[in-house]
Structures are given as structure tokens and as C-alpha cells.
Amino acid sequence: MTVCEDIWNLGNENPLYTICPMDQMIGMGPDLMVNISASPFSFNQANERLRVVAKNAETYRIPVFYSNHCGAQTQIVFDGGSVVASPDGKIYDEMPYFQEMVRVYDLDDVVAGKQASVQPKEKFRLIHDAIVTGVHDYFHKLGFTKAVLGLSGGIDSAVTAVLAAHALGPENVHVVLMPSHYSSEHSVKDALDLAQNLGCPYDIIPIEGPYRAFEEVLKPQFKDLPFNIAEENIQARSRGLILMAISNKFGNILLNTSNKSEMAVGYGTLYGDLAGGLSVIGDVYKTEVFKLAEYINREREVIPRNTIVKPPSAELRPNQKDTDSLPDYDILDPILYHYIERRKGPQEIIDMGYEEKLVRRILRLVNINEFKRYQTAPVIRISDKAFGMGRRMPIVAKYLN
């Protein structure tokens, strides 16, 4: 019997201990090894896990039965995918992901190594299934059944709505359209089309009234100062107030729809669009959100095509585009990935060929917005490095000015 990381301590590949547990136990002449594991899901780990299990079987020349936990606990998802390997180091069987299952094996068959069955490992299928599992278990383990979210007509809220509908059933996902005088006609139509495609209950609550009321209340303080981010954030917080009011009145959990790129650089409003009880796609970069949308639409158009192809915009001022404030996501996301997941420093990223001024600007945005991430909802983890409880970065720091 081995436990979780015991089998990852193989040789000099990843020395977690000074003594390898199986090196000590193999002298007792075991017929097989069982490994019980609670291995958190990461979309790029499945093949590596197979390699490690197979390598253990080959090294010790005994069958390995790797039993992995399945389900989610708060923000961490466990993907199942239990594995049996034969003594020749070949995978004998791999069980389905994100599905509890029991299988019985004949040990002689496993030793002979006749069967070879592995699961498909397409990245966005895995991410989709992991998030659906995360949302489902978060709700049902807490005794909740219904969610509410703001549906803007943009890609992030659209993907979040679909994932929630797949996890909870569309009848349990209440979407709220909250157009402002800056919202395009297309955005409202795209949001309506999605709600109708999914079969989710929806309401349309314009924010013009609350926004104008706040504008009037604050007029003595704002005087005649020009429109700026304060007015933009009042719109976002008006939406947050409406969503939280519905959440409080009906006991629905508010789902946050921010993506990882936005959370990384602070492109969001505290107590506005960053509000929520659970962050559904907060570990999915913007470029990955688009690919996840394409995966969702692989058989039929669930998310309106216009939602996917139009330029991203917060629609908080006339003709606003995300690229007014941020680099193109095709440039931004790789830099964020190298900094966050790969833990590369600024000079290392610059040496990869990225423009120095841009790199230093992006990394500065990541660092100065740590205070926002401290106040946001738990993020369902689908990568090696997600924002949330495990990220222990100081808010007060000047290590990257």
C-alpha cells in the first residue's frame, strides 16, 4: 500500500523524500501495489500521471492499482481516472474521468497485460468536465440548487452560464440581463438568444435608473469633474447590487464570470463584476475561454456566433474595447502564463522575445492588483497555478516596481 505522492518519489526524477517508500517495501515480495490518491485535477497532468504509474510498475515488476478520488471540494477538483498498470510498464486500463466507478480485475489478466484502454485527454473537454464537476459539487455539498449570474452578451458570462446549466440544469440557472445606455443592441440580443438556447429563466433589468440615481446623489461631491473610471465602476456596482439582491431574496448563489486574464491584471470592479460566491472560469485565460466556447458549440450553436467573434468589451463607456486598456489577449495571456504558471521573472520573459516595456507593465499590473484577488470568490482550479487560497503573495510589496 502506498499513498498519493509515494509513487512520485521514483528514483531521482522528483525526490520528495530521502527514502523511497517502495524501495523499502519491495524486499517484502509484494504481489501488487495499491496506491490510494487524492490528486487534484490539472488539465495537463493526465498523461504525466499515466507515465508515473507505468514507470512504477516497470521499475518494481509488479502490477500497480492506482485509485484516485473523484469529485470536488470547494475550489479543488479531483478527476478520478483510476489506473491499472501491468508489470511490463504498460497501461492495462484507465477508468473514466469525473465519474465514480467500480471495476473488478482478474490479477492474472493484469499480469499478462492483454488489455490496453485509456481515456481521451482533449484539453477543453477535460476543462469543461472539471468545471461542471466543481460547480455541481460546490452547490450540492452545501445544499444549494439554484444559481444567479449576470448575462452581458459577452463571451465570459456566456460560457459561465452554459457550464452552470450543464452542472445544475438550465432551470436552476437564473440569468439577468442588465443593459446600460452603453450596451449595444447586439449584446442584449446575444444574451437573450443564449438564455433561450439554454432554456434558462431570465429577467431584463436596465441599470439606467440606479446609475442616474447614484449620479444625482454624488453630484455635490463629483461637482463638474469629467466622466472617468468612477462612473464606469458605478455601473458595474449597480449590476452587482442587483445580482446580490436577487441572491439574498431567493437564496441563489451568485456565480462570478471573470476570467483568469482579467483577474491577473485587475481588469474588474470590486463589489461589481468581481462579486460572487463562486468563480467559475477564474482559472481559465481569456484565449482559453474562446476555445472553451468553441468546444461547447462543437455539435450545435449554443453560444451565439456573434458572442464569440465580436471584440471583447466591458461596455462601460462609448465604443469601449478591452484592448483600450490591455494588450491583445493573444499577447497578454502567454506573458501571464510564463509569470504565473511557469514562475518566470521579468528578464526571463523579455529574453523569450517579448517587448520589455510591455512585460514590465503587465507584471506590474499583476502585482498591484493582489488586493483585489484577496477579496474575490473561490476559484475552481483547473491548472497548476490558480488564484485563491494557495497563492500567498503579499499585498504590501515593492519587489517589482
Structural class: alpha/beta
Strand order of the largest sheet: 1-2-3-6-7
Question: Averaging pLDDT over every residue, what do you get?
Answer: 92
Largest sheet: 5 strands, mixed
In the CATH classification, which architecture of the largest domain applies?
Answer: 3-Layer(aba) Sandwich
Q: Give the strand tally.
A: 12
- The portion of residues assigned to helices is 40-55%
Shape: globular
Short description:
The chain is an alpha/beta fold.
Please tell me about this protein's structure.
The protein has 2 domains: 120 residues, Nitrilase/N-carbamoyl-D-aminoacid amidohydrolase (4-Layer Sandwich), CATH 3.60.110; 193 residues, 3-Layer(aba) Sandwich (Rossmann fold). It is globular and about 85 Å long. Helix 13 crosses helix 15. It has a 5-stranded mixed β-sheet, covered by helices on one side. The chain has a 5-stranded parallel β-sheet with strand order 10-9-8-11-12, with helices on both faces. Strands 4-5 form a two-stranded antiparallel ribbon. The protein has 401 residues and is an alpha/beta fold.
List key phrases describing it.
2 domains; Nitrilase/N-carbamoyl-D-aminoacid amidohydrolase; globular; 401 residues; alpha/beta; 16 helices; Rossmann fold; five-stranded parallel β-sheet; five-stranded mixed β-sheet
Task: Give the topology.
Layout: E1 2-3, H1 21-25, E2 33-37, H2 46-60, E3 64-68, E4 70-73, E5 76-79, E6 83-85, E7 91-94, H3 107-112, H4 123-142, E8 147-150, H5 155-168, E9 173-177, H6 185-198, E10 202-204, H7 208-217, H8 219-222, H9 229-250, E11 253-256, H10 260-265, E12 278-279, H11 286-296, H12 305-309, H13 329-340, H14 346-351, H15 356-368, H16 370-373
Parallel strand pairs: 1-2, 2-3, 8-9, 8-11, 9-10, 11-12
Antiparallel strand pairs: 3-6, 4-5, 6-7
Helix pairs in contact: 4-5, 4-11, 5-6, 5-11, 7-9, 13-15
